[in-house]
Every structure is written in structure tokens, then in C-alpha cells.
Design goal:
It contains 10 helices and 15 strands. The protein has one domain (8-309): Metallo-beta-lactamase, Chain A, CATH 3.60.15. The strands form 2 sheets. A 9-stranded mixed beta sheet has the order 6-5-4-3-2-1-13-14-15. The protein is globular and about 50 Å long. The protein is an alpha/beta fold.
Length: 318
């Protein structure tokens, strides 16, 4: 496997209301994470699509049926205007009216799309049988990995989808609302997860739970952690204890309270990426930093790379 130059962008959107919304663009594929779309975030999302050269989204990925992850009215707007070709939705049963209506709307959308356009629309239910049917991630690569739900827990939060986006030059981990210590332990044991996460979307908005533990942060060591919080931040996300654990682990944390968070690959889209935190509802910049992707470091110490360096004429990675 060789290091690939891939234009990559991740954005955490300020909603102006409780909830989460993110996007990940890599290798010409645009994923919207969570079915949340407010009047404020729509403008940023529309601009992001233009920058990425897209007129629609490729995948809508929903981690949880909770309304701050999937709102029925906002889901309808997303389906009507952004027309995803694939939808990944939670497999667990949630008995709220919002969750039931969202599930029906997704299935109806895919059926209508197939009927009208005769295109292959995919509505993928992310449940334990599906997750167990997937092949294990092996070594470095550019294939996304779904880690959970491998089993169902009694609390609906712990049935959220956990996914590592690896399609670009930096990787993003989405944890949904998981909190259970067994899930955190499973992720810490995964060689892929504990070595490849550049950007970590904090579990359950950065609440004080077993996954957002000091041990988890010290093992995974993401370069940055992102927390979605509304402007009023009525729940105090991320929790002060979680902030302290991240600080002790040397992980920088950014929130959407101050504005959108943008992570974008730079130059030849192999090595460096830039993290920008914007000021609320504007293009003014609050802060900016540059980092080197873990992929670049890992490929540089890959055994094949070491052997190549011993060969005459090898000039290294630029």
C-alpha cells in the first residue's frame, strides 16, 4: 500500500441549536454525518459542497435515532435538497415518534428514488449482524471501518454507530453517543483505531462518561478532538473533567460553540493538514494550526518503506 495524495476535508458545523452535524470529503466522496440541518448550518454546508465540487451528497450517515442526531423535519430537507445516494442508519429500535418517522422516511425515500430513476439506492441498516459480516481491517489502508454495534446494549446511546473514516489523507473517528466502558475497551484494543485517529469526534458531545476517559485518550492519542455544542452550550460540553483529561493527554480540543471547525489537507495532500476554528456565523478566523497526518508517519515507518529506503535511488516521500 502506497501513500496517496488525496484532497481531504472535514467540517464540524455550528447549528445554532443543540445537536451535531459534520461532513467528511475524501477521494471525491462526500459524507454528511448526522441528519441535522439548520438555517445557520445550511449556508456553511452549501459552501462546503461548492468547494468540494459537489451538487449533492454521496452518503448520509446517522449514528443515533436521538433527535439531536436525526430530526425528522431536517431529515426531510436533507433528502429533498441534497439527495444522498446511500444512507447508513441505526439498526436499533427507538420508540420515539421522531425515530419511527425518520426510519419510515428513509425507506420511503430509497424506494421512491429506485422507482423513479431506476438507480441503485442503498439504505444500509447498521446492526450487529451487518457489523459482524464485515471483514477485519488489516494494516494501513483507505477503507472505512465500522466498529460498533457488534452487540446491543440496554441503553440506546450505546447502540450508536462507531465508524472510522479512512478514505483521505487524515482519518476521522465518529463515536455517536456511546458511553459504555466495554465499547471504549474494544476500541483501545484495536490496532487500527488506537494508531490511526487524527480527528476524534468526542463521544456523546463530550459528556463525562466511560469512553471519554483519560485511559482512552492516552491510548488513542488523537491529534485533535472536536465537540459539537450549541452557542448557549446549555449542557456545558465538553465536560470540564473531559477537557482536563484531553489536556493531560496532550490533545487539543475545539468546539462549534465559537464557530465551524474546518480540517483540510494542504499542498500535495499527503502530509500536512490545517485546522481552523471560525468565529460564530462568519468567515473570520478564531484560530488556526497545522499538523502532520498519522498516515504520513505510519507509512514512513512501514516495513516496505524501510526496505525501499535501503534500495539505491529511493528518495523518500515528499
Amino acid at each position: 500500500m502506497e501513500l496517496k495524495p488525496i484532497k481531504t476535508r472535514f467540517r464540524a458545523y455550528q447549528l445554532g441549536a443543540p445537536g451535531s452535524s459534520f461532513s467528511y470529503f475524501a477521494d471525491e466522496h462526500f459524507t454528511l454525518i448526522e441528519a441535522k440541518l439548520t438555517e445557520q448550518s445550511y449556508q456553511s454546508l452549501a459552501a462546503e459542497l461548492v468547494i468540494c465540487g459537489k451538487t449533492s451528497i454521496d452518503t448520509l450517515h446517522i449514528t443515533s435515532w436521538d433527535q439531536d442526531h436525526c430530526d425528522f423535519n431536517e431529515l426531510q430537507t436533507i433528502l429533498d435538497t441534497l439527495k444522498p445516494k446511500k444512507i447508513e442508519y441505526p439498526g436499533y429500535v427507538h420508540n420515539t415518534d421522531n425515530a419511527k418517522k425518520c426510519r419510515r422516511e428513509i425507506l420511503h425515500y430509497c424506494e421512491e428514488a429506485r422507482r423513479k430513476a431506476r438507480l441503485s439506492m442503498v439504505a444500509r441498516c447498521i446492526d450487529p449482524p451487518y457489523v459482524k459480516s464485515l471483514k477485519d481491517a488489516k494494516g494501513l489502508g483507505y477503507t472505512d471501518v465500522i466498529f460498533h454495534p457488534k452487540e446491543y446494549f440496554s441503553g440506546s446511546n450505546d447502540n450508536s454507530t462507531v465508524k472510522l473514516y479512512r478514505g483521505g489523507m487524515f482519518n476521522v473517528a465518529s463515536l455517536g453517543d456511546v458511553e459504555h466502558p466495554n465499547i471504549g475497551s474494544m476500541l483501545r484494543r484495536s490496532r487500527t483505531f488506537k494508531t490511526e485517529v487524527d480527528v476524534l469526534i468526542l463521544a456523546h458531545h463530550g459528556s463525562n462518561n466511560h469512553v471519554n476517559s483519560k485511559k482512552f485518550f492516552q491510548t488513542v492519542r488523537p491529534t485533535i478532538a472536536v465537540c459539537s455544542s450549541d452557542y448557549d452550550n446549555q449542557y456545558g460540553h465538553p465536560h470540564d473533567d473531559v477537557r482536563q483529561r484531553l489536556y493531560e493527554a496532550g490533545v487539543r480540543v475545539l468546539t462549534t460553540k465559537t464557530g465551524d471547525v474546518l480540517v483540510e489537507s494542504l499542498a500535495n495532500h499527503r502530509k500536512e493538514y490545517q485546522v481552523t476554528n471560525f468565529k460564530s456565523n462568519s468567515t473570520d478566523i478564531s484560530s488556526t494550526e497545522r499538523y502532520t497526518s498519522k498516515k504520513f508517519h505510519l507509512f514512513n515507518v512501514n516495513p516496505d518503506t524501510i526496505r525501499n529506503r535501503l534500495n539505491r535511488g529511493f528518495k523518500g516521500l515528499k
